[in-house]
């Protein structure tokens, strides 16, 4: 039982960078596809937070809810690939030009993310909370590494 505490802390650290970064302060003026992208990212952050809370024991584990959350992540991930592909940006956006200057690297980051989400989706089929932990952390790492490379710091 004692061993779960340090692992829970990992989730908090992971999420601090993801969810807190999604505060709605900087979004005035974002329109169209940029606003849609931000919205998608926020919805992914909410799904990640819900899953982390289950892993943390802060929210009752429901295999169905976990499945739905991960399906929603997967759906949003595919949408995001389209929403970034047109190169549109505006002043409210934190998307770095590197996304369109190095499209192959960005596509690789998206593909890595997609694979991680798919592994997590497979893990949800087992209906065991513990089996979600490792693939969840992998997904979180993909979120963070893409943000490091392609998102302007706040
Ligand atoms: C392949 C790259 C990539 C991946 C993977 C990725 N993001 Fe993002 N994310 C971005 C970029 C680029 C932005 C900045 C978008 C903008 O401001 O136009 C962003 C913005 C965000 C924001 C801020 C949204 C806002 O309202 O300004 C949140 C929150 C976020 N991402 C969460 C996540 C979470 C959670 C994951 C993983 C489940 C994730 N992201 C995966 C590239 C990525």
Automatic annotation (TrEMBL):
GO terms for molecular function: electron transfer activity; heme binding; iron ion binding. It holds the Pfam family Cytochrom_C_2. SUPFAM superfamilies: Cytochromes (SSF47175). The keyword Ribosomal protein does not apply. Binds 1 heme group per subunit. Keywords: Electron transport, Heme, Iron, Metal-binding, Plasmid, Transport. Coiled coil: none annotated. It comes from Chelativorans sp. (strain BNC1). This is Cytochrome c, class II. Gene3D superfamilies: Cytochrome c/b562. GO terms for cellular component: periplasmic space. The keyword Ion transport does not apply. InterPro entries: Cyt_c/b562 (IPR010980), Cyt_c_II (IPR002321), Cyt_c_prime (IPR012127). Heme c binds at residues 143, 146-147. PROSITE patterns: CYTCII. One of its GO terms (biological process) is electron transport chain.
């Amino acid at each position: 039982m004692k061993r779960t505490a340090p692992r829970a802390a990992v989730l908090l650290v992971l999420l601090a960078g993801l969810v807190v970064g999604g505060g709605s302060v900087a979004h005035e003026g974002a329109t169209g596809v940029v606003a849609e992208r931000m919205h998608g990212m926020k919805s992914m952050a909410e799904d990640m937070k819900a899953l982390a809370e289950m892993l943390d024991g802060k929210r009752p584990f429901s295999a169905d809810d976990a499945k739905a959350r991960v399906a929603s992540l997967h759906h949003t991930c595919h949408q995001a690939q389209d929403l970034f592909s047109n190169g549109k940006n505006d002043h409210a956006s934190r998307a770095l030009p590197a996304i369109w200057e190095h499209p192959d690297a960005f596509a690789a980051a998206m593909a890595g993310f997609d694979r991680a989400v798919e592994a997590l989706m497979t893990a949800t089929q087992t209906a065991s909370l513990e089996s979600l932990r490792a693939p969840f952390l992998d997904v979180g790492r993909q979120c963070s590494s893409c943000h490091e490379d392609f998102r302007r710091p706040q």
